Amino acid sequence: MTYRLVTIGPSHYCEKVRWALDRLQVPYVEDAHPPALHIPRAWWLGGGKTVPVLIAPDGQVYADSTFALEHLDALAAPEAKLYPAEHGAEVRALEERFDEVLGVHVRRLAYLHLLYAKDLLPVMTRRVGLCERVTFRATLPLLRRLMKRALKITPEAGARSRVRVLEVLDEVDALLADGRRFLVGERFSAADLSFAALLAPLTLPPEYGWPMPPLSAMPASFQEEVAPIVARPAGEFALRLYRDERRATPAPLLA
Question: How would you write the pLDDT of the chain (255 residues) with one tens digit per residue?
Fold first, then answer.
């Protein structure tokens, strides 16, 4: 009864589902691919052009990170629910905000600094097949141009994304101002998981579910970009969630 998770390894949307699988002790194998080269695999398995794609043992396909979390949550014991009944609507509203705004603009802002970084190649090709590693290396100049166009990676778009990321961080700072430990209620939820995972390309927590270079190895422009983010309450909160919850003892599933 093993799940399959099709990913671009370092993708923060893929990390969102990977974290839920690990936390809920769901057996799975990760089927990782470099950007662009993931499309044939995702399409063939019934997803689409994007990842993550989660395939359940019964063949059901969940081609969206939120759909995947909701499915996995249905397997969880009551005390492990990522969408607790008493706060479900609030959790889902925050998760949607993070999915539709934070994740999109964090990705663009990270690529603005890292698309041409020397560490991009090994990060994208770890744990992938030899054929795809060779293909990705050979086509990387073309893929960079295609990614730059598709994701609108320009200084002007990056400036707009910076504003949107900071807007979300302001909102989270305001929520945390009353001293709460979690965004909603008294325990970890999908809102916390989504926030920490989707901000992770800018915070680079050591506990991230895919091998990433340390911040010190990143370009100076990237370090300057993220320094004020990790220092503010929302950034510290995201890193604490990784420290405390990414390696927390996984919760049991219902029998």
Answer: 799 999 999 999 999 999 999 999 999 999 999 999 998 888 888 878 899 999 999 999 999 999 999 999 999 988 899 999 899 899 999 999 999 999 999 999 999 999 999 888 899 999 999 999 999 999 999 999 999 999 999 999 999 999 999 999 999 999 999 999 999 999 999 999 999 999 999 999 999 999 999 999 999 999 999 999 999 999 999 999 999 999 755 454 443
- CA–CA separation, 140 vs 193, rounded Å? 32
Radius of gyration (Cα) for the chain, nearest Å?
A: 18
CATH superfamily, domain 3-80, is Glutaredoxin (3.40.30.10)
CATH number (1.20.1050.10, 3.30.470.30, 1.20.1600.10, 1.10.260.40) of 85-246 reads 1.20.1050.10
Backbone torsions φ then ψ of 126, nearest 5 degrees:
-65, 140
